[in-house]
Amino acid sequence: MINPIVLSKTDSNTKQLFLEISTENRDAFNALFHRKYEKLVLFAQNFVAVNSLAEEAVSDVFVSVWINRDKLPAIDNPDTYLYVSVKNRCLNTLRSKPYTIAIDEQPDIKKTEYDTPHKEMEYRELYEKLNRLINQLPEQQRLVFRMIKENGLSAKECARILNISVRTAETHVYKAVKKLEEEITAYLGYSPKKKTTKRMIMLAL
């Protein structure tokens, strides 16, 4: 007997939107777009370094979703479907425009409320340092870390998208967190986990 597929909460919500989109419900399509667009663009940036190409890949996937809406009810894991589709679009872009991988665009620094200009500068420097350290991680380790810590995917969802085992995904995150904590501790002179004011680091670690 084949065990039924158990959907995550995010998959269940997206599945409902897929079903509604299949009936030509434009409100459901807009809801899906606003809910997933930014996360998918962040994910795409792991493959193509140019932001405009990441946005183009994600937009193409949404266009495909609408055009092929009659096929959506047959998709068992909609979130995985979206991420895999974006990944494939990005890989196709790299094959046709290989130079794009060498182009570096500085990502926008997250907006946060600060008490003083000095504290704002401190957080900005800390964020930039953390971002550089993440970019220096081994390629697949960096990708898994961003998918789980920044895109909010589970290790199981990440494993499905990248076609790796759940244990491998968990190991990548463990090693990435350990490395980042060591580097940030050396940079700050103390462990970030002991300072609740370092909210940015705590979110990542």
TrEMBL record:
One of its GO terms (biological process) is DNA-templated transcription initiation. Keywords: Sigma factor, Transcription, Transcription regulation. The keyword Transcription applies. GO terms for molecular function: DNA binding; sigma factor activity. InterPro entries: RNA_pol_sigma-70-like, RNA_pol_sigma-70_dom, RNA_pol_sigma70_bacteroid, RNA_pol_sigma70_r2, RNA_pol_sigma70_r4_t2, RNA_pol_sigma_r2, RNA_pol_sigma_r3/r4-like, Tscrpt_reg_LuxR_C. SUPFAM superfamilies: Sigma2 domain of RNA polymerase sigma factors, Sigma3 and sigma4 domains of RNA polymerase sigma factors. Belongs to the sigma-70 factor family. ECF subfamily. This is HTH luxR-type domain-containing protein. It comes from bioreactor metagenome.
